[in-house]
């Protein structure tokens, strides 16, 4: 799971660098969405499994 978090974090950093101050839509499976939520919310929980998502859930992050 650590390697997945690292890859997603690298991708998010690339998006942030390439598209500063832009609205970005990311469509992904729930496992990746949970990792994105985990990263954006500051990795507060040690156990990533505590981050849950419902089917077809939409998450909006205004700042990151």
What does this structure look like?
The protein is an all-alpha fold. Helices cover about 45% and strands about 0% of the residues. The protein has helices at about 1-20, 30-40. The longest helix is centred in the first third of the chain and has 17 residues, at about 1-20. The radius of gyration is 12 Å and the shape is globular. The model has no long low-confidence stretch (mean pLDDT about 90).
Summarize this entry quickly.
The two termini are 22 Å apart. It is built from two helices and no strands.
What is the tally of beta strands?
Answer: 0
Instruction: Characterize the largest beta sheet: strand count, sense, and whether it forms a barrel.
Output: none
Order of helices and strands: HH
Helix content: 40-55%
Going by helix content, strand content and strand pairing, the class is mainly alpha
Strand content: under 5%
- Global shape: globular
Number of helices: 2
Please tell me the overall pLDDT.
89
Q: Which residues form runs of ≥5 with pLDDT under 50?
A: none
Radius of gyration: 12 Å
Distance between the termini: 22 Å
Structural descriptors:
64 residues; mainly alpha; 2 helices
